[in-house]
Amino acid sequence: MTNTVIIKDLNKSYQDGQQRIDVLRGLHLELPVGQTLAVMGPSGSGKSTLLNIIAGLVSVDSGAVNVHLNNQFYALHQLDERARTQLRRSCMGYVYQFFNLVPTLTVVENVSLPARLNRRNDLDLRARELLAAFGLKDRHQAFPEVLSGGEQQRVAVARALLLEPPLLLADEPTGNLDAANADQVASLLFDNARALGLTVIVATHSEEVANRADQCLHMHDLNQRGS
Amino acid sequence: MILLALARFLLRTPWSTGMAFLGVMLGVTSIVAVHLISASIATQLDDLIPSQLAGYSHFLHRADVTAEDYFDLRRQWREGRFPDVEEMAPLIDETTVIEGSEVRVVGVDLLSPLGMRLLAQDNEPVEAGVGNASISTDFWRGVWVDESLLSLAAAPINAVINAPPGTVVGDIGVAQDLLGWSADELSYVGIVYQSRWQDVVDIGEHILPGFAAGFPLQPVSQIPSGWSVLSLSAQHPASSFGKSVLFNISALGLLALLVAWFLIYQVAVSWLRRLWPVFERLHVLGVQWHNLQLTFVAALLLLGVLAALSGLLVGRALAVVLYQLALPVQAPELPLNAWVIGKAIFSAVSVCGLGGSWAFRQARNVSTGSVVKFLVPALLLPAAVLGVMSDGAGLAGGFLSIAAVSLLAAWMVRPLLNALARYSPRLPGPILVRLSLREAIWYPRDMGVALAGLILAVATAIGVSLMVDSFRSDFDRMLVQRLSYDLVIEGRAQDLHRLELELRDDSAVRRLQSYRQAQLRIAGLPMQVVAGRTDAAEMARYGYPQPLATNEVLISEQAARALDLGMGDKLDLNESAFTVVKIFTSFGDVTPRLILNEQAVVVQGEVFNPEVVLANPLPLVSLSINADDSVALLKQLELDYGSLDFRLQKEIRTLALETFDQTFAITTALVLIALLVASIGIYIAVTALRLNKKAQMNVLAAVGVNRLEIVGMDFALGLGIGVVAMLVAVPLGVTLGWILCDVINPRAFGWTVTLQLSTAALMTPVIWGLLAASAAGLIRLGRRENSMGRG
Ligand SMILES: Nc1ncnc2c1ncn2[C@@H]1O[C@H](COP(=O)(O)OP(=O)(O)OP(=O)(O)O)[C@@H](O)[C@H]1O
Ligand SMILES: [Mg+2]
After folding, report:
1. Which end of chain B has fewer CB within 10 Å, C or N?
2. ipTM here
3. Between vectors from CA A130 to CA A128 and to CA A133, what angle results, nearest 5°?
4. How far is A26 from chain B, CA to nearest CA, in Å?
């Protein structure tokens, strides 16, 4: 079985004024294809940073970040921004904690955004089906601002799944929701990803969410800040 | 302390602070430049009125004013019938020919307080011993002349005065002698009328040079029956013509300031957005809202004062440049007096203060009552209609309409954006373009004001551009019609007579036309009366298809307006009636003009017609020639007649069009400044919008939108804003163009310009507006400034 993500000796720090903040030091990670991984740890331990590095949104200081997507290997730390953006566009899905939706696009436009960017206009129908399956059948033409928090996250998950990308990243997708909504969103995410055989990485504070994952990675706050 | 923190904030956001500063500075620059130019021109225009007449505010006129009339009026005045009239004196003001040249004879009562006072100024005694101290009989028989008439022999010269060339001032009796009048005849009764509004107008004139021209003649409430009242400006059309020009550019100069106000509002909104969390915390700590507001506005005022000071300097430099562009002469000293400095600082301070407070109120969600919201259009619409419909509203009324229509359009921006937002889900196009276009209309609160600024600037540009273009094409058409002679010669009557005799026998000359002309008074108003051979060929120059009979007259549009005459009406000249057969356009004419068949008038003693129509002889003023080789003829004649002024038709045309274009250089510069300020406003609004889009940018990055696409989206956003602006700006601009052509031009200058919607004139400002908006969308200065904090 091949790995989708292979990280070796990853280091990342931020410069905040005079101060250097070490976020990740000597991180190793191997995640087999089709597996789900929960990343846990206190606030500031670098969960979001790790996800952003894998998504190619943040560059690394040193170490290797390799991904194997659609039968092709990519050394992310060697790719330029253009290539990383292209890779993210075609092979990854991403769900944030909140503000996942573009306010000036309708619900259905938000879902089909990745398809449009990849010139896959054939997926319009699929977008509608997904929305229906996610219980948002009659909200197609609504704009995000009128949706509840749970509905917004479901739309975000639908968008991340539309292209069936081999790698799905979610940064505290349920962090802003009440228990019932959190459970619903987590189910939609994990069940659909498993059914499609996608590799998933979820950063979360929630034990319930972490319990759904095959593996769990615990992060430590290297700087021991914020009590 | 909070102020200090705010000042630090302003310094830490150098780009938006700089933009705000630039915007206000440009606004101030625009009004300062206009003020300096106008003030300088206004004093030159005042010099056109002999100071001996400037003291009178109005002139009472009727047919054949006699000394008896005057004494009768004076008696009534003494009895207290006209309490608002401060002084009253008999007056003569006529143009005649003395010793071969046209002279304006002004007769005043030297014994009247006005006469004494006026003659006491500006006098340079020619001979020693002449002065108020030793009044000899010669003094009473003598005249005061301007420099050009020093060689006048008809009367002893007392002193040289500052007056327009060709002016003679003397006692009433002397003037009557010079004119060959009886001791009973007068031109007018001059009065000094103390209007309640006079002080207001005087102050207005200081603040906005040309101000007085914008207002309808101040009505004299107690007109003695049987008399008509003429104002000083009606007596001096050249001066009031110029002042009207000044009023126009002053009004236009205010545009940039208005747009700067919108800009400051926009900047304040974007700053407040960033400062608000801090303010809220301070409020929680016990700082009153109004203290916060005060500090915030104070910081803006500081910025305003600094911008005003730089605006003063830049404005002065701009004034010098524009002055030379418009009037290619050495620019005069343009001193920064207290009025300009005060005006600059006041404008900047009020723009910043009002803009800042308004933004603060918006930020606190203090909403304007819905009553105000409905009141605005309810008041603006009738104001606009009234200003256009009622001629009595004058130039100011026309501009009131322009202001009202513009504000109405600005007021409509938000409802329009809301309506467009409702339509926007159906917007077609690629998804990212759709996204950006919606952004352009989605945030009325953030974009509305900047959009209004852009709309006003572009609409004014369109209006002015349409007007200038229509005007130019009308003017050009008139030139083509008028300039049918190859060579035009002007100069002294004697020389022209000599030349005329010589040319009659010249075989190279195909047609020779002579013009006799003088400024006469008709119904009390100065008019140019022109007489010549009025055959069909000549009349074609005025667009009249047949010869002019001796009992017919052609009048210029200005004359028609001044005399209130239409086609087919009768005009009485010395008890002979002439039928008005054509009203012709004459752009650039300052004085109303009448054209008569020369056989209807007496010319320099040569009687063409036994029925003497005009008491005054008309001197020969110019000859026009059609010749086979006009250039060769010109060369030859120039040698023989050095004192005459020769001009080829082609040169006149080029010169006329050049002058035309120069006239509008100032206008174009002012519109461009306003457009620049408006684009800065849009830029600031777009930047503020971006501040809110941090989360959205993250989402777009996560789904893999690349740099190029982001640039494309920025462009689409700018273009979208531009397109929305044009939706309002184009109809508004056309409306403004119409008001300028059909209302402002007739009221200011007495001529009508036919509005033509030429594509080029319409599209140039539109394209500039779209470019400005797109640029505002694309340009990202001070990136770091906008990404405060981290995602
Ligand atoms: N762009 C940045 N510049 C400077 N420091 C940053 C930046 N992004 C993150 N950090 C710092 O890096 C550390 C890790 O941040 P990160 O967001 O990855 O933590 P996290 O585990 O996701 O925390 P949370 O559970 O609160 O989301 C934090 O101390 C944060 O302040
Ligand atoms: Mg995080």
Report:
1. N
2. 0.89
3. 110
4. 25
